[in-house]
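User: Structure tokens for both sequences below?

Assistant:
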Amino acid sequence: MNHFLTFFETMPVWQKLLWVVLCIALFWVLEGYYQDVTKPYKKTKHARVNLSLLALVMIINVVFGVLASGVFVWLDQTGFGLLPLLDLSIGASLFISILVLDFIAQYGVHYLLHKVPWMWRLHLVHHTDQHVDVTTGTRHHPFDFMIREVFALIAVVVMGMPLSFYLFYRILSVLFTYWTHANIKLPGRIDRALSYVIVTPGVHKFHHHNELPWTDMNFGNMLSIWDRLFGTFVYGNPKDIVFGVDSAAHVDDQDLLVQLRAPFDKTIKNKSY
């Protein structure tokens, strides 16, 4: 187990970037063979704005990487957090850390990004995409990404987890992000069976519906248990799904500058419950 975790802790930047590229490429190819939503669109043009936002996020990620490294050094020196107190095996500690990260840094912050009005305005950029596919997983406003990273560090500090745990989680999270957004269709029974434990493409599509209440359901990224526990899980008729945000239907979802300005666009109204 130590050698396994050391691999992630010493993983060079180029390998992390390669993992992102491979995940996108894998599901991009699978979308060609097992496409779910068949509404025609220019796939390459559509990917440009999403990948451009990914590039901006990666630049910000470098800054957060420096901040995070300082946090991990401090945790190592002070022994702060729940894991040092619990004194569990490495396997058990890793399992609990993944659960906590998935809850706080994925489900929890995602819930707030939908429920807190000013946060929603940042997050809606992710939802304005009217053609959800694998590249939508990269579509985040830089300020949205910053909020997510802060919550991830909160989870790290609370648990007092080592860097290797966090990096392993990030590798898993990247895979699930592109898996859940991929425009692929699984056999209905398999999708439903998997959805009792993990988030599937079929489950996450409801979250990208353009209207409430589905927009505010299925917040999970990896595990679906949080949505089931807190009553935010839905599995309706996929044929009823329309991608986008109803209040932002008038803005160009394929214009990068328009999307960067979208959180501050007064013509886009907040949700009305």
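Moving on to the next sequence.
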Amino acid sequence: MNILIYPLYLIDNNKDHFERHKEIININVEVVKSFNCVDDIRIVGKPVVNWSEMINDLMKQTEELLKEGNNVLVCEADNFIVEEFSDIFSLTKFTLFALCNNGSKLDNNLPGGEYLNSGLCYYPQTDYQSYFNYSDILETDSSMASLEYEKKINHMFYSQFNTHEEGLDYINTQIGFSVHNWRGLLSIDIDDRFKYKAMPTSKNIKSIHFLNLSQYIHNIEGFDPFWYKKFVLSFIDGQKKKLIVLRILFHYWSYVKIPQYERKYRLVKYFVKVLINK
């Protein structure tokens, strides 16, 4: 089967965050059901002490589903799917879908332009033993655990190719960057480090990853926990995707500190691209 997984864990007994994640995930599940493009949707989770325990359990459950003969798409709780995504299940390799703004803080071999985001991960069942190489994370700090996880996921992806460039070419050719796992703020940092610089227009965006830099962890104004709920509800209320994408980009302009002229220009340029295209 083709299975979509949402992780929903009670972390350190934070019931407020758990219930608010649950609400948004349940909304997205109903949206995804309307597309009729996946065999099963599962919400997995349990009470855990920290992010490491959550990630380790999620990876264990993913591996078990692969052993049972399933293709598995893991969608983080803050990644909201807005269009049907059956194209993903035709992929033959473990796939990530978008780049991070900068390089890994833990691995110099994953620089900006090559460091991929883990907000959406596709695990094909075919020959999964050749790429699925995961060892438990022991880090107790949540932010560091997240960075360690993303490093491991990147290594897993690139292990399928002879070079990083070959891996990037695969994503661009087979599925296209940022069509799934769209992170609008990425547009401010796409410079000469990036081989593929184009960001999709609103028409082509199939899922939106809201906490692209996990701003809420660092108490940044405008990015309190679940700042994105109003955008999720706009989809449910029938607002056009293009308008919502433009509002998200404007939200970044309003609250993210972008001191360099070039970075501001890139965001404005992308805003205009979305505005003038369907």
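User: Anything stand out in the second?

Assistant: Helices lie at 15-35, 51-67, 142-158, 164-174, 229-236, 241-255, 261-276.
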